[in-house]
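Study this:
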Amino acid sequence: MYQAILNHEQKYNGKFLTCVKSTGIYCLPSCPARKPLLKNIRFLATEQEAIAEGFRICKRCRPDLFYRGENQDENLFNEMLVRIRAHPAAFQNIGTLAKSCGVSSTKLNELVRVHAHISPAELLNRERIAAACLALVTTSQKILDIGLAVGFESEASFHRQFLSQTAMTPSAYRSLRDTSEFTLKLPADFTPDYAWRYHLRDKSSLSEYLDEHGFTKALWINHVPVIIHLKIDNATAYCYWQQPSTSDVNSQPVGVLIHQQVIRLLGLNTNVSAFQSSAKQNSQMARLLAQSSPLYIPMTATPFESLVWAIIGQQINLTFAAALRQALIKLAGPVVGDSSLHIHPSAINIAALEPQQLTDIRFSRAKAQYLITAAKAIVDGELDLDQLATGSAITAEKKLCAIKGIGPWTARYTMMRGLGFADCTPVGDSGLHTALQQFYQLDKRPTATEVEQLMKPFSPFRTQATTYLWESLRKKS
């Protein structure tokens, strides 16, 4: 037992507790704190015994959280997010943020990478811009005052970061309050081809299409259907929309919500430059990048649409999955106004279905039940996908996998394409396993465990790496 605590072995957590007589605290065997001499230790079997003997909780390893099934780092990350969102300007730099969390800068970097899949600086900027966006459309404050209030040191840095994350200036964003169109400034290396291919995997889709005029899709905005039209010309995206009816729901302006969905559809939140920079010190990443032009990772218009696609796609090929999706949209997706476009069904639409209605359109009994169960979890408030998208990746995967019928592949695909996490590996994906076999020139397809190992060199950009690997299969087909 003493050797186990000297080695900080996590496998003994829950089997016994280390109670230090000199300090009066009790710890998990894996506690990172400096270990006392054996003569100063009592080993007890349960937390109740330790408390009864008068020992107190260790503030470093938090055995109380362990025995409640909670994770200390997960709690710390979630508490940190609450503090940042309440006062984004309170943290001038990463050192200030680390100090407020009671951890080192190294620990903070690890914490944010694991839970948010970005760096602490990127997290701060993301939350500052989110606060600025809200202020721009809900107040009449001067733009500079808003930038300073959320924590930026100058007007130039505010404008630079705002443009990077929203593809428009703060003043243009403010105009989303009362407009029916907007333009986005695209990165110089952006091309829409991959986004169009992703959104049109179903060549006969009822909810979106691409023609000489651009991309058209039906979306839910403020709980009513809207048709958006999106055209890419050189380095600019032009978007306008038609709203057959108005919403009585008190929510953000229509333009703001459509802007969010267009950013998702085009994959403009992809950190391509950071991926490319990492390749300079990573030979495997460099070799992967050399196989394709830069890829911006498109997402589904809403997280729920991604979850539906993932459940439909479980253990079947893409052609059949597209056919099932089309049948589902025809069954449960309302037609928008006088158009021929259906809108992708909402969670409410699908939760109202009976399994028999889905098996009648070639869903398996199990898949029909999984889809309806997931939709009901969202309608009942048990699963909040929008909240998961801006929280911890660890929390998101646990919440998703707690729903019957959702395993690691379905959860991670949803996290990639629906929630926007940057460091996901959809283990179990047939295409990924095949692509890795070819990339590493392996004699046989890698197992799930081997896939996890083979993808490690691409962290913290495994979502982008996965996309490049999928694309490598298309080019060889």
